[in-house]
Design goal:
Residues 1-5 and 16-25 have low confidence and may be disordered. The relative contact order is 0.12. This protein folds into two domains: 86-297, 2-enoyl-CoA Hydratase, Chain A, domain 1, CATH 3.90.226; 318-417 and 428-548, 2-enoyl-CoA Hydratase, Chain A, domain 1 (Alpha-Beta Complex). It is built from 21 helices and 16 strands. Helix content is 41%, strand content 15%. The protein binds coenzyme A (COA).
């Protein structure tokens, strides 16, 4: 039921935002001078700060190692085969030609690393949000150096997540298709279930019906399932010689009929542009295809604000009073090393200004308003355990932001273990807390405004649901590299199991499985971001979320029925 309420509410947010007249949009927001959060680092914080900093530096090193691993894609041989034998551009070079600039938001770059079936760099497919002809678009681009761009279970999950990002934020979606279809040895985990391969095509239709434009570029093979992505997109470009679309390739034709055909004859760009009509634009080479795609995006008929207005907005943004580098010493290496959440807020908010809400009540949760790169947001930040009063306050504040159409930012650092029930007083406290947390969860689930979650420390137990964890469907969820994600934190499982070997094993497993990189490898989030980059990432996300107001509103509830 909550989901229905939430969907209705989301619809309301989307439509009311988009229907706003341009005059209303041009009206100035009231001036604000929120109080400045004076939160310098004090000598008393030194010990905790230094411990956190050492841990952050170690995490940073791991982050850089994984980044390098991902950058190498499928390895040297595969890169040579891709560029020299197959004469194709590498996926990052393709993005360079497609996007306005290199300042794009890559989603889950570490997805696919450390999986039971091996390391699949970038999950075989890069996803993210970048500007094309001035418009923020989601891109989903296969990396054919990783096993011919075939889809592993994690690839499918990553594609579906990128489509969900496009749906939730109403962003046009561009597919660069270069894929051998399903990775056959794992077909049972790719093909049959609801959120598996077929869902990508289902989403394409649903997105079109929602007026979320989709464009595809065939810049490699599109075999089997891969063939439906370009044929279901609203507009498709195909590159001569390197692009092919067919359900079964030449070897299959030979086996079935004995006939020998070349890939080009069977499903090349000329055939599909001139005979089958499966594609709409023929490009002689890759660069031409991306130029063509940029032109297509410029016909999507969004009315973006003038550049002058953008420049004015950028000029009005004030940096925080404290260096973002100081966040490295605030990123808790464990829950016990958490410093006041306001210290983090003061290093993220414009001019470190914050209008706190209910400052004297439920102090283990900090709530209030700030601007981040010019965008007004409601911030909800853990500052201790999510106790009864804190959860009630959270519930109130979330509803307040929903009422005022203000996006929510959750800074999550939840307690490592649930409170034990050792006495009747404790039982009563726990029951009250349970009720208040339930109420906060309902408020978060049903809030129609965009939500962004950054796990800055712990993501443990039920508190993490109320703080808009993955199951609560935030528009974006990022982790700092020091973050820990697990039901119970390492070292806190003693109340769950009797002492002995099992407990040690569990602790060991928790240590490994709760790391931010383990989580990101499995795509439980949208990526690990560095603390010092958080303000920039949040600014981009808020710009991205806002773009939907520039799409001209029209009623349309049917997908385009294409190429029939
Ligand atoms: N499942 C599993 N592995 C696959 C695969 C698939 N569907 N398609 C390709 N691979 C693997 C290859 O075995 C090879 O692995 P290796 O590097 O360990 O040797 C790697 O991907 C690259 O394939 P290769 O054929 O050497 O590269 P290529 O650039 O010449 O061709 C394809 C790439 C995708 C065009 C070609 O491999 C192909 O047509 N594959 C079959 C596609 C298909 O029929 N899919 C049906 C899915 S339902």
């Amino acid at each position: 039921m909550f989901l229905c309420v939430r969907r209705l509410a989301e619809k309301h947010w989307n439509s009311s935002f988009r229907c706003m007249s341009s005059t209303a949009r041009k009206r100035r927001a009231p001036r604000c001078a929120f109080p400045v959060l004076e939160q310098p680092l004090q000598p008393i914080h030194q010990h905790v700060h230094d411990g956190n900093l050492r841990n952050s530096n170690a995490c940073h090193q791991k982050y850089m190692e994984l980044k390098e691993k991902v950058r190498r894609g499928g390895g040297e041989n595969a890169v040579t085969r891709h560029t020299q034998r197959n004469k194709k551009l590498l996926v990052r070079d393709r993005l360079r030609l497609l996007l306005d600039d290199e300042d794009f938001l890559e989603l889950s770059p570490f997805a696919g690393l450390g999986l039971p079936y091996g390391d699949i760099p970038s999950a075989g497919c890069l996803t993210g949000i970048g500007r094309i002809s001035g418009l923020w678009c989601v891109f989903i681009a296969n990396d054919a150096t990783v096993k011919g761009g075939t889809a592993y279970p994690i690839t499918v999950k990553k594609q579906l997540r990128a489509q969900r990002v496009a749906i939730q934020n109403r962003l046009p979606c561009v597919y660069l298709v270069d894929s051998g279809g399903a990775f056959l040895p794992l077909q049972s985990e790719i093909f049959p279930d609801k959120n598996q391969g077929g869902r990508t095509f289902y989403n394409e239709a649903i997105m079109s019906a929602m007026k979320i434009p989709q464009v595809s570029v065939v810049c490699g093979s599109c075999t089997a399932g891969g063939a439906y992505i370009p044929t279901m997109a609203e507009e498709t470009v195909m590159v001569h010689w390197i692009g092919t679309i067919f359900l079964g390739g030449p070897p299959l034709v030979k086996a079935a009929t004995g006939e020998e055909v070349t890939p080009e004859e069977l499903g090349g760009a000329r055939l599909h542009a001139e005979v089958s009509g499966c594609v709409d634009h023929f490009a002689r080479e890759e660069k031409e295809a991306y130029d063509c795609t940029r032109n297509i995006v410029s016909t999507l008929n969004f009315q973006l604000p003038d550049e002058e207005e953008e420049v004015k907005k950028a000029g009005a943004e004030e940096e925080p009073l404290y260096s973002s580098e100081e966040l490295l010493g605030l990123a808790p290496r464990s829950y016990n090393y958490s410093l006041d959440a306001k210290m983090v807020i003061s290093r993220l908010a414009d001019a470190s200004r914050f209008q706190e809400f209910k400052a004297c009540y439920g102090k283990t949760l900090v709530t209030g308003f700030a601007r981040i790169r010019g965008h007004l947001v409601g911030i909800v930040a853990n500052n201790g355990e999510l106790l009864y009063q804190a959860a009630l306050k959270g519930s109130h504040f979330v509803q307040l932001c929903d009422q005022r159409d203000i996006p929510l930012l959750f800074l999550q650092n939840t307690a490592p273990a649930a409170a034990a029930t050792l006495s009747t007083t404790q039982a009563e406290m726990n029951s009250n807390r349970l009720k208040a947390q339930g109420s906060m969860m309902s408020a978060v689930a049903c809030a129609s405004v965009p939500k962004i979650t950054v796990v800055i420390g712990g993501c443990h137990g039920a508190d993490s649901y109320a703080m808009c964890g993955r199951a609560f469907d935030p528009n974006f969820l990022f982790l700092w590299p020091n973050a820990r994600v697990s039901m119970v934190a390492p070292g806190h499982s003693s109340s769950l199991l009797p002492p002995g070997g099992e407990q040690d094993d569990l602790n060991e497993a928790l240590k490994e499985e709760s790391s931010a990189f383990f989580s990101s490898g499995r795509l439980w989030d949208d990526g690990v971001i560095l603390p010092q980059d958080t303000r920039k990432v949040l600014g981009n996300c808020l710009d991205i979320i806002k773009q939907q107001q520039y799409q001209l509103p029209t009623e349309k509830r049917r997908p385009m029925l294409l190429r029939v």
